[in-house]
Structures are given as C-alpha cells and as structure tokens.
Amino acid sequence: MLNKGGNRDTTMMLMDRSVPGRVGVITPELDVPAAPLPDAALLRDSLPLPEVSEPEVVQYFTALSQLNFSIDTHFYPLGSCTMKYNPKVNDEVAFLPGFAGIHPQQPAEHSQGALELLYRLQGFLTEVTGMAATSLATLAGAHGELGGVLMMRAYHLAKGDTGRTKMGIPDSAHGTNPASAAMAGFDVVTIPSDADGNTDLAALREIVSDDLAGVMITLPSTLGLFDTNIVEVCRVVHQCGGLVYGDGANMNALLGRAKLGELGFDVCHLNLHKTFSTPHGGGGPGAGPVCCGEILAPFLAAPVVERNDAGQYTLAEPEQSIGKISGFHGNFGVLVRAYTYIRTLGAAGLQSISGNAVLNANYIMHTLKDIYALPYDRTCMHEVVFSADRQRERGVSGLEVAKRLLDYGFHAPTMYFPLIVHEALMIEPTESETKETLDAFIAALRAIDAEATNEPETVQHAPHTTPVSRLDEATAARRPVLRWEEPAAAD
Amino acid sequence: MLNKGGNRDTTMMLMDRSVPGRVGVITPELDVPAAPLPDAALLRDSLPLPEVSEPEVVQYFTALSQLNFSIDTHFYPLGSCTMKYNPKVNDEVAFLPGFAGIHPQQPAEHSQGALELLYRLQGFLTEVTGMAATSLATLAGAHGELGGVLMMRAYHLAKGDTGRTKMGIPDSAHGTNPASAAMAGFDVVTIPSDADGNTDLAALREIVSDDLAGVMITLPSTLGLFDTNIVEVCRVVHQCGGLVYGDGANMNALLGRAKLGELGFDVCHLNLHKTFSTPHGGGGPGAGPVCCGEILAPFLAAPVVERNDAGQYTLAEPEQSIGKISGFHGNFGVLVRAYTYIRTLGAAGLQSISGNAVLNANYIMHTLKDIYALPYDRTCMHEVVFSADRQRERGVSGLEVAKRLLDYGFHAPTMYFPLIVHEALMIEPTESETKETLDAFIAALRAIDAEATNEPETVQHAPHTTPVSRLDEATAARRPVLRWEEPAAAD
Amino acid sequence: MVTNFQSHYIPNTPAEQDELLAAIGLRSVDDLFADIPDDFRNPPLELPAPLSELEIQRELGEMAARNRPLSAGPSFLGAGSYHHFIPSIVKAIMTRGEFLTAYTPYQPEVSQGTLQVIFEFQTMISALYGMEVANAGMYDGATSVAEAVLMACRVTRRQQVIVADTVAPAYRQVIATYCQAQGIAIDIVPADRAADAVTEATAGVVVQYPNFYGSLEDLAALGAAAHADGALLVVSADPLTMGMLRPPGEFGADIVTGEGQPIGIPPSFGGPYLGLFSCKQQYIRQMPSRLVGRTTDTEGRTGYVLTLQTREQHIRRERATSNICTNEALYALASSIYLAVMGRNGLRQVAELCYHKAHYAADAIGKLGGYSLPQSADFFQEFVVSCPVAPAEVNRQLMERNILGGLDVSDRFDNGMLLCVTEMNSRADIDALVSALAEIA
Amino acid sequence: MVTNFQSHYIPNTPAEQDELLAAIGLRSVDDLFADIPDDFRNPPLELPAPLSELEIQRELGEMAARNRPLSAGPSFLGAGSYHHFIPSIVKAIMTRGEFLTAYTPYQPEVSQGTLQVIFEFQTMISALYGMEVANAGMYDGATSVAEAVLMACRVTRRQQVIVADTVAPAYRQVIATYCQAQGIAIDIVPADRAADAVTEATAGVVVQYPNFYGSLEDLAALGAAAHADGALLVVSADPLTMGMLRPPGEFGADIVTGEGQPIGIPPSFGGPYLGLFSCKQQYIRQMPSRLVGRTTDTEGRTGYVLTLQTREQHIRRERATSNICTNEALYALASSIYLAVMGRNGLRQVAELCYHKAHYAADAIGKLGGYSLPQSADFFQEFVVSCPVAPAEVNRQLMERNILGGLDVSDRFDNGMLLCVTEMNSRADIDALVSALAEIA
Ligand SMILES: Cc1ncc(COP(=O)(O)O)c(C=O)c1O
Ligand SMILES: Cc1ncc(COP(=O)(O)O)c(C=O)c1O
C-alpha cells in the first residue's frame, strides 16, 4: 500500500492517539431543565474512550481499510464463501430512510412496504428451494442451522418420538453443522464419504435407526461435488423416520438447476450473504433464512409474515414454532439486499449464475489438474478442491502455496478444509469473475508450482509484499492480548 | 499499494478490457410503440465505447482510486491549495433528494428551500469578506476572477471611463490572475514585491494613472505573508480612480481576523473548495463566489437571490450585471457543502480555523528554518514558503526534495511557485492536522536534508515507492497521446 | 435447457463461455450438471421477470415509501431499538468496498484492516462495560444474552438460570429457544426477588440494565447474591447508557452482553444489529464467537490475528463453545467508528441529553391528570406511563398528530405505555407529546 | 481577543496550541496576526451560532424538504438539465475519499488514479463526439461553448462569430459575457440562415445539437458553409443523444462542446455540472483546460501526466489559452463511470428509449384538440408544443396533478411549451400528461 506518514500511519491505535480535550463530535445543547442525577454510586467515574477529532477518525479507519483484500479490490476465490460481486444498488436501497429508518415495533400499518418485501422474499426463497414455507428470522448460516435442527427436534417430540437423539453428519461437513446439532441437543454421528466423494450409503444404512433424528447434508458437498446418492440418502433417512437437513450454503451451484425440496430435503437454510450476494462485511452481517416442507412448516421460528384477505401484511408465529430465535424479524437490511438481487436477476439470471459459477470452477479444475492433485476427478460444482500433496513433496505446503498467492495479488483459497482432503486448497471463483482473471489466477498457481521446484524458500516464507508477514499465532493464543492496554510508563 | 492480479490490475484500460457482448447495465424495455427513426444519415454506425460488466467497472475504478494520495489518506500540505479535512456530513446533505434531485428551472415556489440556502450563503460570505453583496454564480476561483474583473471593467465603462486598459498584478500572483485579466481585455502590468515580500509601494505609485483599471492583490499573498502595505495600496489605487480586486483563495488565514472590504478591497472571490472545505475532487468542482462593495454590487454576475417582502426567494439579475457567466445558478452542490460548513462552525469556529492554520504554518517555519532557507523571515500566515537553495548546493533540487517526501508518505508541497522565490517549496498544513502529523512531516524534511548530504542519489531519483516513478513529461508533450488507441495488430 | 441470460453482474459472454467449455471438453453448460438426476434437473423456477436498475430503484422506492420512517415526526418508541443520532462518517467509512466486501479475516496478512478494527472494538466494548475482555460480536442483543446463559451453565457446570421478569420479553423468548434442547431450567422471577431465588444449583442470574421498562436494577445486590452461591451475574446492558452509568463490571458482573444498535446502527426494522459480549478474563476459553489478538510478524511488526480458535466450530466442531461463524463484523466497525468519534466526552453528553430529556418528559406527563408513573426506581431514558385509556387508543390518537407513541405494556402495567426519549427529541417534540397526551386524557 | 473554539474538525487542543506557540516563542495565537493593522484586526463576525451535526442534518433536511425533487412525480422539464437514470455505482465510487479529497493531479507519481480516469474520460468523450481529442473538462456546457468561441477566434485570428438563435438562451448570454471584453462581434441569426451568413470574417458558426428546442440542425450544410470561408464549425451537443445520433465529428465539426450533466450527473439545481470540450487534433495547442497524456516512467512503465501545460495559466499567465484552473474533475469521473457501465449498448438503448418515448408523447399531444407541434424538423427527446392557453397556466394545472410541465417558450412560439421526455418517464407518466393536457385544453 502507499506509504503513509503522520497520523495516517496505522501503528498507533485510537487510545494511543487520544489527547485530552480533542473533540470528535459536537452534541446539541440541552434544551430542557437538567434533572437531578441518580445516586453517585450509579454513575461512572471515568469513561476510558479515546479523545480524537473527526478528521483523525476518518483518516485512521480509511488507512485501516486499505490494509484489506476485498472483492472490490482483489479476486477472492475463497472456497465455501461465494465471494461474488456485491451490487452497489443493493446497498443503496437498503439505506433508504423508508427501510433503514423504521422501527421494528412500529405499527404494522406503518410498515406495510417492509412487510410486503419480507413476504415476497419468503415466497422467492420457498420457490428457489422447492419447499413449502420460509422463515427469515435467522441471522446467519449457522443460526439457520440451529433453527432448522431445533425444528427437526420439535417435530419428533410433537409426534411423541422422544428417542431420536442422534444426528448424522458427513465427515466433510462445515464445522457449524456439528456445532449446531450439539446446540440443539443432538449427539453427532459422523457419516463417511465414499471413494467418489458421495455419501457412503453403506455407512449411512448402518446408522439409520429409530434413534436417528436425521442427517445434515451439504449439497453440493464441501468437496464441491453433487452427491449422486442424494435421492437415495433422503429415501433411506426418511424410511427410518428421520429427516434430512440441507446446508444450503453452496446453493450458488444449484440455482435453477435443482431444488432441495424436490430432491427429498425436509428443511434447509440459505446463506443470503453468499448465494444472494449481500456483502460479507468482513464477517457479517449475514442472513440464514430457513425453508422447509409442509410437515415442518408449523415449527418454523417466529415471526413469519402473513398476508390477510384484505391484502394486509402482519407478523405471525407459526402454530408449533420453536419460538423466537432473534430479537426482531431477522436481518432486514440484508433481506432487502437479497430481495433486490433476486428482482434484478429473475429466474434466467439465477440460472446463469449457477451455470457460470460451475463453468468457471471446472475451467480452473481442468487447467490446473495436471499440476495440482485432484482427489476427486469428476465434474465439480461451484468450487474445486485440490490437494497440494505434490507440492508438499517438494517441501511446500498447501498453506504456503496459498500465502504465496497473496503476493501475486490474489486472495488465498480456503485451506485445509474439508478436513478429509489432505493439504486441501478449495477454490471458488464464482460467476462474477472474468476469463482474464481466471487465466491470470491459473497462471499464478502454475508459476507458484514452478517456484516450489526452483525456489521453494520464496514460497515457504510467503507472503513478502503484504502489510505484515506471517504472524505468530501460537503466541497470540498462548498469551492472549485482546485489547489495548496503557503502555507501561517508561522510566 | 497491495498487489493486484487479474482484472483489478490497472494496466489495461477500459477499451483493452472490452469484450463484445459484455453488459454493464440493464435498461428497461421500451413500453411504448417504436417511432420511425430519422434518416440513416443522422444515425451513427458505431459507438466506440467499452463493453464491460458492472463488477469490472467497480473493480477498475476502485483500483484506480488506490493509486491516489488524498487528504483522507495522506497529509497533503500543498501550498496555496488549503487541503483541509472535508467533512462527510457536507457530502451527505448535498446528496439529499431535495437538493441533488431538483431542476434548476423548476418553479421558484418549488425550490424555496434551495433559494433560501443560497440567499443565506450570500449573506454569510458578504459578512465574512466585509463586503456589501455576493453572487454565487461563478464556478471556481479563476471564474470568480473573470467575473470580478469584468465587473471592474463594466464599472469604469458605466462611468464613461473608457481609457482604463491596464491591470496591475504582483509578480507573486497566481497564474489565473493575469490570465483572467487578459480574458477581461486588460493589459497586465506587473507590480514587483519589496524586500519584505509586500507590494512595492514605490513601484505601484509608478504605474497608477488614469489608464489603470485597478490591481489584483492576493491577501495573504502567495508568499504566505500579510501585506503590511495593503491599506496604503488600496488608498493609492483608489486615489487614481482604480479599483482593488482581492484574490481570496488564501482566506483560510484571515477568517475572522480581517475583512477584505474593510481593508479597502472593492471586490474579491472566495474559493469555497479551499477555505470552506468543499472537497477538491481531484480538480473540482469548485465554487468561486464574488463578493463586492456597494459601488460594484449592481454589476454582479446574474443571478443573485433576493427575498421579497412576503418572505419569498427569487432569482434576480442585478441592474447593470455583467450578465450570465454560467449555465444556471452556480455550483449548487458545492454551495450546499459550504453553507453546511459555516453553519457547523459559526464565527468562533471560523476564527479557530485561521488561528490554527496560521499557528501550524508558523510552527513548521520555526522548526525547519535552520535547515531550509527562508526568503522572508517574518511571521507567516497559513503557509510558509521555503527555498531549497541550500539543498541545491548539495546537488538536490526543490523538486527532488518534494518528490522524496512522497516516499515518506507525505504529499509534496507546491514547488516553484511563487515564481519569485528560487527553488520554492510552499507548505500549507491547514488547521485540520494534528501536532503528531506536523512533527512527523518536519522530521521527514530534516531526514531528507540529511540524505541530501549523505546519499544525494536517493533524493535525486525519488520517489522510489510510488506506483510509478518519475515520468517522462517531455515526450508526453512532444508526442502527445491524449486518448486510447486500438493497439496496432501484431503480425 | 436453460437459456443464458447476459446479466450485468456476470462478465463472461456466451462466446467466452464456449471457450471455457472447449478447454474443459464439453459442449454446453448443461453438461456440467449431468450429476443431477434427470427428473430433478432444471425444474421450473417461478420468479418475476428481471427488472432494470431504474425499475428496481422505483419499485423499492415505492415500497420504502409505504413505511413511515422515524424521521417523519416525533417518535417515543424504544423498547429494544433506539432512535439515536449517527454521524455521517459512520456510513461514509463503513461502505468503503475494502470493508464491505471482505470476508471474515481468515488470512491475517491481507486482513489487518478488519482485524485491527475488531481489536479496537473489543477494547472499546470492554471499556464501556468495565469488563476485562469482549469478543468480536454476536448476532444481536437477544442471541448474545442467550449465549451468555449457555456459557454460564458451561462455566458453572450447572443447569438452572434465574431470569428477572424485567428482562425484555423477546430476550426471554430467545433464551428459551436457545435452552430448549439443553436441559436448562429457566426460572423467571420478579427482579426484586431474583437475589433471593439464587441457590447452589443456579448457574447464573440474568438481568437487564436499564431493564426493559427503563429502570435501574440493584446490580450490587444481585452480584453479591449470585456470587455467594457460586453463580454468575449476567447483565444485558444498553451500551449508550454506559456513557453515564457505572458499568456492570464495577458491580461484579461476570458476563455483560448488550444490543449494539444504539451505538451507531440504524433501526432498520430490527436488523442487522450487533450483539455485544464481554466477560471476565478467566472465562475467555468459554466465550462464544471470534476473538482478535495482538501478536507480531516474522519481522517483529505488530499485527492482529483471530485467536483462541480452538473454542470455535471450525476447529472444535460439536464441542465448540457455540456454532456461531458469520457474526456482524460490519456493524462492529460501525460501532467502533461511532464510539471513536463520540469519544469520552461525546458519549457522556449524549447519555446526559437522553437522561435529562426523558426526565423532563416524565415529570410533565406525571403531572397530567389521568396519567401516572407506576414505577419508582431510577430510570435512564425509558419509563412506563399509566394512561387513562388503553395505550392502543392513545397511540392511535398520537399518530393522528403525527407522533409515534410508545410500546403497549398493558400486560404488565395498568394501561401501561413504555415511552422512550432520546437526544433526537427536541423540547418542542416533548412538549407536543405532553400536550397531545393532555388532550387525549 | 478571539477565543478558541474546540471544533471537531480541528484536532489540536489549547494545550497543544500552547506547545506550538512555545516552540515559536509566542504567547498567544493573536500575536501571529500582528501584521494586520490594529484597526482592522479581529472585526466582529456576525454569523449564526454553530450547530451540532444532529441539528445541521435537521436544518438542511427541512430546507431540502421545501424543494420538490423530480422523483416526486412525472417530470417533463428539460431545457438544459435532464432527468436521466444514474446507476448506483456512480456515487458509490466517486465518493471514495481517494478521489473526493485529492487535489488536481500535479504530482503524477501519487495521482495516477485521477490521471488515468481523465485519460479514460478524454477517450470516451472524443469517441462520443467523433472527435480526435477531448480535454479534461470545463465548468459547464455554457462556459464550454463560450470558450470554444474564444478558441475559434484564436485559431482563425478573426473576431466575428455567428450563433444560431436556436442555441440555448443561457449559452448565448454566457458567450456574450465571455466575449464582452474581447472585441468579438456576435451575430445571432436564425439557424436556417446561419450558413448563408458566413463570410470571410467569420471565425466560427455556433449551433446546438439537438438545438435548444429539440430539433436536429443540418450540421452537414453548416459545416460546408463554414469551411468554405475558413471558419470553424462549433457544435454544442448533448452527449447522451450521441448514443444514437451521428456525431458532429462525422459532419466535419471543428470544436464540439457539450453539457456533461446528462451522462451521470444529478440535476442538483443547476450544478455542479461538467463542460465537455473536444476538437480536431490540429487545434490542441489552442485548447483551454487540462489535458492528460500518456507517457512512461524511468522504468518504462506506462503512466499519465498533465501535458501541454504551456497552454495554461500557471505557465503562460496572461497569454494562456484560458484562465481555467480548477475544473470539474470529480464529475469527469462520474461521467466516465457512467459511460463505462452504460457502454456501447447501454448508451444506445437509453438514447433510443428517450427518442421513442418522446415521439410517442409528441404524437399523442399533437393529436389533442387545441395543441399543435409548431416545428417540423426531426427531434430527439425535446419538442415544442403550442398550447391552447398560456404555458404558465398549463403548468399550474399540471402541477395540481403533480406533473412538472415544460419550459415556457412563448417568447418564441405562440403559447409554446418545451417538453422533454426521457427514459425516466414511463408510459403511464406520458399517458397521464396527455390526459391532463386534454383536460386543460
Ligand atoms: C458449508 C457451510 N455451511 C455453513 C456455513 C455457516 O454460515 P454462516 O457463516 O453464515 O454462519 C458456512 C459458512 O462459512 C459454510 O461454508
Ligand atoms: C492564489 C490562488 N488564486 C486563484 C486560484 C484559482 O482558483 P481555481 O483553481 O478555483 O480556479 C488559486 C488556485 O489554485 C490560487 O491558489
């Protein structure tokens, strides 16, 4: 990044910059008589916040922003994360005063536009997933999972079926799947993958029994593969009285190509901050709506939006709802963006997304598989998972290959996930990248492979051009420093 | 800057990226019957604009932005330019639909808020300059100058005084002053500065006669000095029947400290994009309102805003107006920002600006004058003009010192202006910088001086860390390439 | 067959797609989906036809226009979402693409911006609450306190919590949802009996500060009672009130959570908001969500990383402290900018404006015939008014005067209405409310 | 004595100011102003008391609310400022601090962003107009054509210009202002007689395309006539119409200027706008304003610089081609983003939408009893309607129906109203206008 002198240098934190008496904001004068204050025991003595002026705040945070890679500035093929283009119009409409400036508890007659938007979005997502109903109350993918598996639990309990304590989860699953299942009180049973990367049907059959509440399947799987056993998986689970949860985080591959509900899934969540292009914001906000079939609809998290005969929209609680799972009605600002995105693209646009996302991933797969090991050599979906095993043999790890990409001006792929692939490098190009970018990225990965042979140290010690080099994570965890502290007075 | 790969690399221009069939925008369907087209001779065959998608446009322009220094990212002590903090609230209000979305010709009764804002701003600027009236119609400093000197011309002509063909302008003046005078039909007579950097009164007395229309004086001068002869200058010019124009581009030094009207100036312009902190935008838009005393008020450019007895605001043309000088009513969006700025600061705030701007400049002057030659060793105003003569002796020019500052993360001072100072380095810190930044900047200039002794090549070939190094300006001018051309087909 | 649609969001043209297909050795994009069983491939997708951006802006603009923004007139509605002023710089900075379009900072070398922001956030949130550590944020205030309950149970290895009945109803519901499968017993007790209810089985005592009805609970007493029996004191506190009030940390709270919306986040119909979560240092390994730590790089430069990740789902899976992954990072940024620019004095001034204005309003309303203030404890910016007629009717008549009234809490207080006054309410707004209420009486 | 005011825009505190003063050896800030004669120092400054940002937003919000934005209802007002759609990305990018808060790119090494943008702008504007070179922009459409007149006189060393009477009245006035001190004679002649009026004394013929009343002048004839006598053809052309119309460059125009507002700039009560300026290569040394050229750095990398600066005031002073310095760079950026995203097809589509919708409207209105279309030439998106009653009255009645009517041009056409229809007008808008006009008749 361009050198910065003086207060634009980011090495000083806000508290380091604080000078007594500096002012960052002017507040209005008090225009009513002052009231007596409560007992002093209730009032604070000091408020250890910084004292800095407005220009300093702008300059400091602007400088910080420039230390980031982001979609707007860098190709970001981070597998499983669907780092696609985030349209600016979506942000613009979400900030309209009629959206950003409305109170969640104001009377419904003064929020009809907002409620209608939510109602329509419920319908769009229900349609996209081939389900029967949707709740928008869950605030991220993992939150949707929690809501979904709690619904599975509630369903069994409502039937008086109290013995279903187990949840089957593939070994390739994202960590949130087992964590959500555990929060919903289930014991996790791991389901292995077969040699093709599909669910191992034999292994599945072994665990299905009347203590199995259901399974959580990611489709396409985190291996970037369409599980060709999926219909059979659903059949087997259903046969034993279990339910099938779909982790829809990878839905970018399937938009308009297949519907989870039709394949046999009972409930799923979508990551609007992936598939529906709401910006990830450095780690959120997201939105993880839950869509489900008829039998689970009564259990959806509250609220859902209903439309009455007079055409008015109201918030309602499904009959046997698992209850409220968030403070209000979901991450509305994110939902506005997703609604806008779907309205912009329509069915043909969504299908074009999945087509191009999958095409781009396969292009990368085909142009690199001579060099990078491909654990599952079959058509991939929206992402391709390589292994850096062949580079490892030359002393260069997958992590090092990934870090070296940063020097080439590309964000790294997801590394070491899914856990079942050795030295995994998981690359998701998305549909929003140009062929030029794909080719430049492919060239970089080929060049790094050559470096692994010719100058392995360059790769091993990468990155070399970033604001900081490799960081000491071990010490960070062993002696955690989690906030600014007054520097010890020098004497 | 952080490395960028693929299409975020800026070496390809839009036309290089263009791919037939890529779409950047979706337009609505035609919802009326198509009309017959005019004769084909009136229609164009090809429209050689790029074909790129929206993400590419965002990524390309974002990448370009990151090649810039700017106030938000770097200390920018560019003399004569008043690169102070540009408040974000000013931009926010300027974009309100009730401001950005109104038509300049819509009926006055539907623009009362906008007209009132202009009316009040006229009043504020009239007050700040100690004048009698203001027109906001001029769109930048130089445009204000043209308006102002045309008013001087019109005034003399209105009196039947047709022989006043000369305009006196100090040798230190900004280039726009003589250029504006020439556009207004005057012959420029140069007025030298005296040894203290003030107007040379003796020289002035020599040129005053009945062919002198007036003089254009910058206060504080472009040497960053308050001309202590100024009252006498005005007296002398007035005595001969001439008028005094004030270039108010440096008004940041005098806000609330002195009023041009009271000192004897007849007319002046203000640079709202300097003193009143509207962002400079990489070279505009600006706004250069003209303020004048009673005798010149009838000649102001049209329109001005008037308030009638019913409290309604209307656009009006002053009686003997020089006429319209721009398409509509001035750079309204810039005027909204300046209005907001003045409302935020009030009189005490404006005085604090000049106090701190001048204090910061003097601090730099005092802490560097042992090393950098100071042509006029007296209290400076908002900026200090050094000479790099002592560095030059060691083979390092002022330009090279300035370029080397870029490596230290600071924007360069203005170089080689004013023309009367050898190897001029003109530094304007403004009031919005912290002491830390001033100290870091001072330390950098001291370090560069040391480099001039110890490793002059480092300075001579600077900058070393910028996106491009020193550019070949001679070839650029000799064989001008002013737009993208289709690359010659390789064969 | 799916036809190709050339969106402005998708660069590659059909010709380019054909080039890619050729490289792969396929004929059509459809062939890539051959793994999907025929019967399920390319189902009909019934969605409205795509719109141009011009039409989108118009459609969304019309939908937005059918909602009444708080800026349309005086508003006295709080109850969990507050109308506070947000300086322009917050949006100006948070919408920078480098922040907006980055992912979770998993690659620290190219994410120092986001990481250092979170470190600032952790610093300022712990300072506000008087706590030793704060995490990178949770989904919202409700899920944050629910996760605090789970954490209190983990820390104490107990399975019963006491929740004051003055905790926001929505928060209580979300706690119930989060606990429903965990075998945790939740006892809802009146706030003034919460201290007495603690036993050796109690994992934690949960209160809100100020409570949902605006009043200040006796944190010192609750902390003492909880700690006497080895339970934790869990407080959900409004961060903006911390500009003035002694923080829960100074009363011995073990976990302090909160809704971050009041500090720099627009009401936005209830989200996205920001869960705040802080605790004593000794419990950090039981915390949910991300933590950023300071460390050094190979050249000794300071840098920031995600740390203590072994607590988290991507490492610990079913034994993680929580399933949370994506949180609300962008709003942690917004709050950090807000707190930075408000600073030590600005936050105190805003808190005091709210306090004095609310008391001015309460005093005036309390003197109106037919109205009374049923609560006696100290309050901050919210208070309950008992109205002469049903609150719904009062609100209806207020809206006729373009005033947004308070929340109906007649389930708890006779004709009760929960009113909120902030720095956004001018004296004229308050006077208009008071005279309107006088007319309605 | 001036008291110090601690603004949030000014970081240094009184204590820090004292430190700086001590370094200088002074006691007070006031001492720095000792050069100002006593009688004039620290005059009273009567300005309203400062406001907090909360109050500023409220005050400005209220002032803005007293203006009716074009989005409030159908609008048919054009006449030099046009209601076109601007994609969101334009504002999202132009407000980035790196563009917004940079100065004129005098230090090319740290201004490549701005410089390359201008080079793109020059490229696209020359392409639009079919001209060889374009500069970095002028103040607005009016000053741009005025500078073109001065340039035509410089190039031809003649002092007389012919200006068609169909050039916008405001443009004609600004030409007069710019020429008033230069001894240039301006002959305003009917457009269809402009060709005949050219003599060997004529420096240039100035026309607008489409003209102020919407019609397309016969550029070919004008160009031939001008060139026959050694004069230049100067055309002020709407850049958006260039999506569809053959550009003036292809008719032999020597200088083509234009108002850049239609391509990506909001109407904003008349400014800031953007002057477009292009010409034949042979005249570049006579051009006003900045030019950016491509070159290479010491390492052979491509880079951009301000070039041919010897034309400009900071070098050439009173002999400069113009006094212009600051221009409208930020809006050259806006237009560049707009043109990039519209691209070859989008700009054509928008132009066609305007064309067809305007013709649909004109047809329908022309068929109404009492209304007629007094002009017969081809038009683009604007046309004059002769109304049965005074246009002011028609407009009044249209506004009762929340329709913003056209410009009153009854000075030139009997009860004439200049109407404009763009892509922002839906068929429903147009139909509403037509039925309203029918009712008013
Ligand atoms: C496959 C998969 N499932 C679930 C999640 C969890 O989603 P979130 O981060 O929104 O909670 C993710 C995101 O990282 C994921 O990639
Ligand atoms: C002293 C002085 N006068 C006049 C001007 C011209 O102002 P503008 O660039 O707004 O035309 C400038 C700006 O560079 C200046 O510094």
Question: How would you describe this protein?
Answer:
With 491 residues, chain A is of the alpha/beta class. Chain A has 16 helices and 12 strands. Chain A has helices at 14-17, 54-65, 88-94, 97-100, 112-129, 141-158, 176-183, 201-207, 230-239, 260-263, 332-368, 389-392, 398-407, 435-454, 456-460, 473-478, and strands at 133-135, 166-170, 187-191, 212-218, 243-248, 267-270, 290-292, 304-307, 313-316, 384-387, 414-415, 424-427. Chain A is globular. Chain C has 441 residues and is of the alpha/beta class. In chain C, helix 3 runs antiparallel to helix 11 and helix 5 (112-129) packs parallel to helix 11. Chains B and D meet through helix 2, helix 3, helix 4, helix 5 and helix 6 of B and helix 1, helix 2, helix 3, helix 4 and helix 5 of D. The structure holds pyridoxal-5'-phosphate (2 copies). One pyridoxal-5'-phosphate is lined by residues 80, 140-142, 174, 176, 218, 222, 247, 249-250, 271, 286, 288 of chain A.
For the structure shown, list the relevant keywords.
heterotetramer, A: 491 residues, alpha/beta, seven-stranded mixed β-sheet, three-stranded antiparallel β-sheet, 16 helices, C: 441 residues, 13 helices, globular, binds pyridoxal-5'-phosphate
Fraction of residues of chain A in helices? 25-40%
Task: Outline the biggest β-sheet of chain C.
Answer: 7 strands, mixed
The side-by-side strand order for the widest beta sheet of chain A comes to 1-7-6-5-4-2-3
Determine the structural class of chain C based on helices, strands and strand pairing.
alpha/beta
User: What is the helix fraction of residues of chain C, given as a range?
Assistant: 25-40%
Low-confidence stretches of chain A: none
Largest sheet of chain A: 7 strands, mixed
Strand content of chain A: 5-15%
End-to-end span of chain A in angstroms? 36 Å
In the sheet with the most strands of chain C, the strands line up as: 1-7-6-5-4-2-3
The percentage of residues in β strands of chain C lies in 5-15%
Mean pLDDT value of chain A = 97
- Number of helical elements of chain A: 16
Largest interface: A-C, 200 and 206 residues
Q: What's the gyration radius of chain C in Å?
A: 25 Å
Distance between the termini of chain C: 68 Å
Structural class of chain A: alpha/beta
**In oligomeric terms, what are we looking at?**
heterotetramer
Q: Helix-strand pattern of chain C, N to C?
A: HHHHHEHEHEHEHEEEEEHHEHEEH
